[in-house]
Design brief:
Blueprint lengths: L5 E6 L3 H5 L8 E5 L2 E5 L1 H5 L8 H7 L4 E4 L2 H15 L7 E4 L2 E5 L1 H7 L2 H19 L13 E6 L1 H9 L4 E3 L5 H5 L28 H9 L5 H5 L3 H19 L18 E9 L2 H21 L2 E12 L4 E7 L6 H21 L9 E13 L13 H19 L5 E5 L9 E5 L12 H10 L16 E12 L20 E4 L2 E16 L8 E10 L4 E7 L2 E8 L1
Parallel strand pairs: 2-4, 5-11, 7-8
Antiparallel strand pairs: 1-6, 1-7, 2-3, 5-6, 9-12, 10-11, 10-12, 13-14, 15-16, 15-20, 16-17, 17-18, 18-19, 19-20
Length: 559
Amino acid sequence: MTVAVRTLVVWCPDWPVVALGCPLDEPVAVVFANRVVAASPAARECGVVRGLRRRVAQARCVELKVRERDLDREARTFEPVLGALDDVTPGVEVTRPGTCAFVTRGPARYFGGEAALAELVLARAGEVIAGLLAGCSEDAPAGVVRVGIADGPFAALLAARSADPARIVDPGHSPEFLAPMPISVLGRRELSVGPGLSSGSGSADGSGLTEVLARLGLGTLGAFAALKTADVLARFGNEGVSAHRLARGLDEHSPQGRLPPPDWSVASDIDPPADRIDRVAFCARSLADELHQRLRSEGVECVRIAIEAETTHGESMVRVWRHVGALSAAVIADRVRWQLDGWLSGRAGGLKDRPTGGIARVVLAPQEVVAAGGCQLDFWGSGSASETDRRAARVAARLQGQLGAEAVLVPVYGGGRHHKEQLRLVPSAEVELLGRSVTAADTQRSAGADGVAPWPGALPAPSPARVLSSPRVVELLDADGSAVAVSGRGRVSSPPHLLVVDGRSCEVVAWAGPWPVDERWWDDERSCRQARFQLLTDDGLARLVALESGQWSVVAIWD
């Protein structure tokens, strides 16, 4: 039986906020895809927590400063922290910006025990982070860095999350420490990240499994760990066995994991040597695709990768990254770009032990691989909806790598009363493509689940299929041939009967409205005062028409 390895995890709970240089004593929220992904301690005191929509967070805290998430900056800013820990041990593994881990056996003996090692790591990391925070004292604020030590990276990460600032679980006592934890921690992506997690090609998010376990009455990790492994395997398969090992406090390294041969590594020489990230971004994408294709031809997937770089002055730098589940080509390319950007930025910032010359060679070396999982297609070979989403995400990532970051745009719901402002186009790399939906019905259902009412004055679902870039001027007449008018109180002068579009008259079969809108009266440039009608005409089209400044126009169409 595999014995769990003593592991130290460094966790920065507010890293997206820290990386942006925002003071933690001010209410700040970092959003991604219109959701809060991180909040400063001052914002949390006002009720701003992860998962809230932007509008809800701003309603809870009127002084809230909202910043968009910058993953590149998070990774680039985390490199100096990793550089400080390199003096403690060379075996630091990065799981994501703000979280890293290493085995404690050697460092703990050298520095005089695990307690002394935890204090040293807190001091080294805190010193670097203190310089990143605007307006802070010489020491890092309490709680900005946390350290956990336990048997295995999963237990160590939970220890870090419950630490203030450090917590050490005695050897052999990780199962007792994990037993009272809720079963939901197995399905939370941020808790599934660890230096030893190798879930193969399975889902990186075990929320489906945890929901089933909760319905079966297994509400804690201890209750789940008490089950027999054979029973778990028979009912939940390999994914259940991996989760069962975590609940028992065992090492997460997959039993199928193995070291790849050296000839699976890929390398590229950069001539002339690169001193800016934009020059090596394309190289990173090409190397990631080459490595991914090579591993696929061998029937394996990479879960742990070493990124190596050599400079013109003979300097060699290595950083190890681990990911939940298999590393796709897009994920590998992101990690390579982040790491090279961190090294190059460190040189520009004058940090010690940073490269003094341009990068002349990049090597990607897989450190651990697992057997590639198969995909069960539908009877006619079309594949499931999730597989279709993954396929679309891979295509978007490939096009983005070939054409540029701004070339592939996807719609994102942003709220608002007007049809033209509810959806906006953003680069596909800035949103989570898997499992997303931007339909009005799904948006309203999710809003209701969050306890948030729809936008007042917004059109009811379904949303228009076509939004005209330039409104088309029309006439809306009643049965007597007079123009339909709307009073200041929102009352219609007479029922609409004819819609005249480009000189052609269409009879109004059904109509709804008016829906009056009067907003931003204090802003001459952005003020809007109009009345909207939903009209169904005898030509089979449904139109959204708006009356503004005495002029009717078609602004959107349902077809």
